[in-house]
Fold this sequence. Notes:
Number of strands: 13
Strand order of the largest sheet: 4-10-11-3-12-13
Oligomer: single chain
Helix content: 40-55%
Amino acid sequence: MADIKIDQSSNSYCFSAGSRELLLTKKVNFIFGKNGTGKSTLADEIAKQFSDNYNVCIFRDFDGVAENNRLNAVALGVENAKIQIDIDKINEDISEIRKQVEQPEDKAFENLFTNTTKAKKSFDAHNTKINNFHASAAQHIKNINNPPVSKTTYNRSDFNGEIPKASLLAADDIRKHKNTINSDKKADISRITFPAIDLGSYLKSTNEVLDSRVKPHQSIPELKDDPLKQNFAKEGVRIHKHRATEICAFCGNSISEERWAALGDYFNTEVKSLEDRIKSGITKIEHVISELDDIKELDTDTFYSKYADKVYALNSKIKLTIGEYKKFLDSLKTALEEKNKELFTKTPALCIDLPENFSGIKTDSDRLISEHNELSKNLRFEQDEARDALRYHEIKKQLNGFNYEEETKKLENLRTLNDKAQADLDIKKAELDTKTRIRTDLILKTKDEEKIATSISKLLKGMGVESFSLKLVDDGFAGQKGQYQIEGHDGKIRPITDLSRGEKNIIAFLYFMLNLESTDNDNKPKIIVLDDPMTSNDDTMQYLMIGEVQKFYENIEQTNQWFVLLTHHTHFYLNVRNNKGARYNSYNKHGTFHLYSNGKYTTIKPIVSSNDDFKTSYEMLWKELVFLYEQNKPDLMLSSCRKICETYMTFTKKDQVSFYGNNTNAKKLFDVNQHSIDDLEADLNGRTREEIKTILYGLFEHNNAREHFNSYWYSSNSGMK
């Protein structure tokens, strides 16, 4: 029979980390622990974890024996042989159902069991195929290095969780994401300032100049209404030096003073004024052109590579706009230069379109620089997003290569077939369980409790217990069977309310033990659990209980049963284990465990030899003290110290004065909070475990019992830290 492993992980609030699993390797097991150490919790876990495969029978105080106030009786059950016909019929039904739900001996025979097995095998095989793909795909993604796209612990579970995010990327996006991941942090870029040039005002001013002309104050007939000659004469005045006997470069004649005077009146200050306007306009235009030349393009190297295309496009737009500005301004400059040659006539106005200004470029530039600076600030986040996008791309590639969608559809079809086969089997099993429960109920009703009651009375009398026996009640009113009154030694019926706790407990215990013989149910193996069966019974009841327990477990090796006894009663624990003399090693034959509590967590200690066990209640106190010492629970050590001292004083017939001597503070310390309920974790005394140990040692040294202290202290070392 396989070992029994009790999982205590759900009780981590009360069991220590090393005691959250109890392995029973022997059929008979004794577990000793004080109240509050989790014995009932262990019993509950056995029922919870093993009831599906075992018939778990738990005795816990008065369970299984009910009081019947109407009849002033206790109920032990009834027998009804008439329902045996129904039992036989339901056995036939169970046999037919088992032919469908159990593995057939004939391998060629198909039933619900074989159909479910085949469906599950097909589903499991395909599920394994997909799981293997998940694992290999996750491994592939984890191994990508240029650049890495996943954490170093990336696994199948991570891959499964990201399948819904899988998405292919364009080649350009892949390049950009890789560049982002490989990018080093760049400095912030300042915004570019573009000149604010009002080209409209320049065009307006230029046209105003073009519309201007010089009107001569002196009439010179040969120049009248002839702009070419007027300009010729103006240029001649500029070239010649206006000296006496000046010779005209054109005609070779001397220029008289009268002629100079006439020309001076003709080309008056208006000419100079218009020339100055033209010159000023050209200078301003040249200055603006110089400003345009100072405009710098965006430096591609200062931007992250992902913005290279945008930088190139924006620089192209800057170049184009500067060129259009210069072309526009050159047209104005040329027109003014031509106007300077024709001061005496109006020149047609320029009709040209204004180029688009820099506002759009400014907006695009500011936006691009802001994006760059924001990326620089959040580069880690952007790199993570880029890495995620590349990983989702790789996941999609893996899915496509595996034909994942079709494979998962096939898996779902197999799952549907498997679920249906399993559902059909479960329905049939549920029917089997129902039939089995009905049969169990019928069997329980047919048990001969009168025989059990007679056996209980005989056992009580056999132990010399004459205080009461069980008497069958004839319930003529309702015909209720299996009801028993308590008959005193004087033949009178006692009120069931007068039954002591010990008397109720022994009835319940004996009924439980005798009833085990007929608790067959569906022939499952049994686990019998006695959860603190020994309560307030007197010595006679205790030895009766010990005898019945020993009689039961002595022959258990030949049965399909396990036995677990949990008790806090030291005398009962020491005597219920049958050692059968020196050659009989109970620890090899039976499982033995102690439960120790440090006030918060319980520790389970396997007992493998008599050296680990205690032989007296006094020795148990020392083992408990050393355990609390090793657990560093000084406040809880005080109670054990007090009990050890009291017991020692009783054994040695010492009074408190002689035992404690002048160390009355030790008694006060050991009596701390012995009569109140306090937080076990509170700092009650302020003494360390070593100080408490030293105080106790000092008391035994005072009483010339150092060897006594050392013997019990070091032999009680629990080995549990």
